[in-house]
Structure formats: C-alpha cells, structure tokens
Design goal:
This protein is α/β, with parallel strands linked by helices and 293 residues long. The chain has helices spanning 24-36, 56-70, 85-94, 115-128, 139-142, 148-155, 171-180, 195-200, 215-226, 230-247, 254-262, 279-292; strands spanning 7-11, 41-44, 75-79, 102-106, 133-137, 161-166, 186-189, 205-208. The chain contains twelve helices and eight strands. Strand 1 (7-11), helix 1 and strand 2 (41-44) form a beta-alpha-beta unit.
C-alpha cells in the first residue's frame, strides 16, 4: 500500500510584506507553485515558516488560508510541537482538524528531555491527536537527538504514528529505524541533501526547504529516486548540491527567501530574531542561481 506521505513534501515559508505582516498574495502564489511543480503534500507552520515569530491568530489564519487555496488538491500537514507537553496537548484538543491530514510534531526544544521524557511526551501527543502523527527529530535546532530506539518505541504505540521526519544527518540512525520499524511507519528525510541517499536505503521521500523555490526540480529528484532512476536522480542531486549548501549557510529560511526574492516570488522579509542573508551569502546564491539557470 502506498504511504500517504510518500514523495516530496514542502515545508512552506511564511512570506511577509515590508511592514512584516503576512503576505497572503505571495502565500497563495506559493501554494499554486507547489501544486503545479508536482509536490505531493504541504507542511504548514514548520520550522521554515518562522512559526515561533507568528501570533496564535496568524497561525490559525495561515492554516485556514492554505487549506482554502489548496482546495483539497494536496495533503496538508500542520506543525504542532512544543516543549510544554500539557500545553501542546491542550492546543491539539482545541484545534479544528477539518482539512488537515496529519500533524508534524518536533521533539521538545531547549529543555533537553531524556529519551524517556521524549517517549512520554510523544505518547501524550499521539493520544491527543485525532489525525496521523509524523514525528520530527532535528537535534541541530532542538538540542536533543531522539535516538532510533526511542523513535521505534513511539512508532509501536499506534498505527496513528505514521512516519518520522528525520533530520539527524546520520544515515546509520536512518537505517536502524528503517530496518526495525513496523510496516506502517516510515522515514522521511528532513535534509534536502540526503533525499537521494536516504531513499536509496529505504526512506520514502523528503520534507524539503528548497522546494519553496524549486518545487519541480525537487519533486523530480524525489520521484526519480523512488522510481530507481539513479542516473536522473544523481544528475538532479548534483545540480542542486551547491545551492543547498548556500541556502543553509546562514540558517533557514534566510537563504531560501533570498533565492525566492531573486526569482520574483516573494519579498525578502523575515521577522526578528531572524534577519536576511548577508551581502556575501546573497552574492554567492545569486552566482549559483545564474549558473543553474
């Protein structure tokens, strides 16, 4: 059976106007670009969306807006994570899940729980959620790595736990999860640059940042990898390799927003504490974009 989140997902940015308000016109264009570019599902309010800098009202409106503009064409995953388990459970319980196909829930950040704490946190999340749960491990941002055994322990709680977005950067950890997971639970790469190698060992795709700017190319990479077209997948991987390094040079989403501004799709606006990429990084992104074009 095909997994509902196989292929290419995109972690949507949040476009802003010069006054830092949400640019809904740009957001609508972004959704249309993802649909026409062959992306399989949308991830709203992930890390790439600068979610910590959004108000609760803005978060609700962004989700509502994306659901409306998507009009049922692609599956929608909404980021719902936090480091206050009880507060997160309450938030899940109060959410209207109409039009939402799953949640993406990141490991608690800053307070660095133990593996047992991670297990009990996600047990509460899974029990509270009325929709499938995709776990999210990104130790470079949260300060804690959810080990493979902990991930597998959570996966075995319920068939509602359908996948993990794994961004540990360690293919050995990917392999341990892939080898030992129940059939309904899959690994999704959280690193664009590991799309091809992770699929080669059994992951089912990627939740991508660069797809905001290059949805067609990223979608082709993921699908060629899944189809076993190694030649095409390798060519696409190599075409994007340098740009992938550059867009993360000063953090996410500063790099991809710089690229998208060059492409004319958004304004290069971020909310503090994030700031636009420096002139030197911008120059390198511009040079690489001209090479790719």
């Amino acid at each position: 059976m095909t997994h509902p989140f196989m292929g290419a997902g995109v972690a949507l940015i949040t476009p802003f106007n010069e006054d830092k308000s949400v640019d809904y016109s740009a957001l609508e264009r972004l959704v249309e670009n993802q649909v026409s570019g062959g992306i399989d599902y949308l991830v709203v309010l992930g890390t790439t969306a600068e979610t910590p800098a959004l108000s609760d009202d803005e978060k609700k409106e962004i989700v509502r807006f994306v659901i409306e503009k998507n009009a049922g064409r692609l599956k929608i995953v909404v980021g719902m994570g936090g480091n206050n388990t009880a507060g997160l459970v309450q938030s899940i319980q109060k959410t209207n899940f109409d039009g939402i196909d799953a949640i993406l829930s990141v490991t608690p950040y800053y307070n660095k729980p133990t593996q047992e704490g991670l297990f009990l946190h996600f047990k509460a999340v899974v029990e509270a959620s009325p929709v499938p749960v995709i776990l999210y491990n990104v130790p470079g941002r949260t300060g804690v790595n959810m080990e493979a055994d902990t991930t597998l322990r959570i996966a075995r709680l319920s068939e509602k736990v359908v996948a993990i977005k794994e961004a540990c950067g360690d293919l050995g950890q990917f392999a341990k999860i892939i080898n030992d997971a129940p059939g309904y639970f899959k690994v999704i790469s959280g690193d664009d640059g590991l799309t091809l190698p992770s699929i080669a060992i059994g992951s089912i795709g990627v939740i991508s940042v660069i797809a905001n700017a290059l949805p067609e190319k990223l979608s082709q990479l993921a699908h060629a990898s899944l189809d076993g077209n190694v030649l095409l997948a390798s060519q696409l991987h190599l075409q994007m390799a340098e740009m992938l390094k550059l867009i993360f040079r000063e953090g996410n989403p500063a790099g991809v927003k710089t690229l998208m501004e060059m492409m004319g799709t958004i304004k290069n606006e971020l909310r503090l504490p994030l700031v636009p990429a420096s002139a030197s990084t911008r120059s390198m992104i511009e040079a690489e974009w001209k090479r790719m074009s």
